[in-house]
Amino acid sequence: MIVLGIESSCDDTAAAVVVDGREIRSNVASSQAELHARYGGIVPELASRSHIQQIVPVVRAALSAADLALPEIDAIAVTSGPGLAGSLIVGLNMAKGLAIASGKTLIGVNHLQGHAYAGWLYDSSSGDPTPGAPEELHGFPLLCLVVSGGHTDLALLKAHGEFERVGRTRDDAAGEAFDKAARLMGLGYPGGPVIQKIAERGGPSDPLPRAWIPGTWDFSFSGLKTAVLHRARAEGIYPAPEEGPDSEAVAALARSFQEAVADVIATKTARAAEEFGVQGIVIGGGVAANSALREALSDRASVPVMSPPPALCTDNGAMIAAAAFHYLERGDRSGVDLDVTPGLTIEEAPSTPTAASI
User: Fold this and answer.
1) Do residues 212 and 239 both lie within one domain?
2) Burial label, 335 (beta-carbon count in 10 A; 0-12, 13-18, 19+)
3) Can you give the residue range of the structural domain that contains 99?
4) Is residue 316 situated within a structural domain?
C-alpha cells in the first residue's frame, strides 16, 4: 500500500511517500524556523501563510522524489490534529483537494500517534538491511513517549491504533520549556538544538530542581523554567548585559537545565515501562532527538528503546503516512466532512470513520 502523507500541524510543511507503513520512498519538508526566529517563537498567522505558499511545491517534490504520479498512490493521509488550527487547515484542504480530484482514499491522522509510528520507518535508499518492526521484534504492549514543543505524553500502545494515555505534562511541554529556557539564556530559537550544543561545553553546575509529581506518570516543567530564570538573574545572564553574559556560565546553566529535563523524563519513562510490563519503549517528537535524553533513557530502561533517527523525530510527512497505513489496515476511512481538531489527545481517533468516505 502506497500512502502520500501530508503534515502541516505547526511550522513545518511536509509530505512523504511511504510503502506499507515502513519504507520511505520520499520525505520532503520546508522549515519555517528562520521565519519565526526573530519573534522567539511561532506566530500562528505567519505559519499558516507560509504553509499556503509551500504546500503545493512540497507535495510535488515528494511525488517527484518517489518517482510516482498521483494515480499510483493508494491513499492520501493528512494530519487533522492536534496543532495550530490555521496550519492544520492548509494541509487538510490540500489533501481533500487531491483526494477528490483523483478519487483516492482520504484518511485523517492523529499527529501524536504519527510521532509514535516514526519508530517503524526506514529509508529504502540507505542500502541497510530491512529492520524488523517494533511489534515483530518485541511484541505488544509498547510504551510510547512523545516529547515535542506542544506535548509530553506517555501512552501504552496495546495494538496498532490502540493508544491509552497514562502520563502527560501538566503545564509546559518539554520542547516549550527548552524554547523558554533558551530565551532566558539569550540563545535564540528554536531552543532544543542550541541548548544541546551549548550544554556539551558546559562544566559542572549546581543541579536544578526536578518535579517528580509522586503517584503519577505526569510531568511538569514550569517550576524548572522559573528556576532557570532565577539562576540566570543571579549569574548575570538575564537580562543580558551590554558586553554579553559569561559564556561559561551560560554553558553550565544550559547543561544543568538539559540534565534536569532528561533525568525526569527518562526516569519516569523507565519506571512506567516496568510498572506496565511493556515489551519495549518507542520515542518520538522533536525533543526525542536530544542526545542527552536518548542516552539517559537507554541507560535507565530495562527493555529495548526504539529511537528514530533525529531527522524523523521532528514533524514529517513519513510518520503521518506510517500511522495511516495501520488506520487503513483496520478499515478506517475519512470523508469530505473531515475537520481539524486542534486539541486532539494521543488516545483519540482523528475522525469518526464515515460511510461517505472518499
Assistant:
1) yes
2) middle
3) 2-121+312-329
4) yes
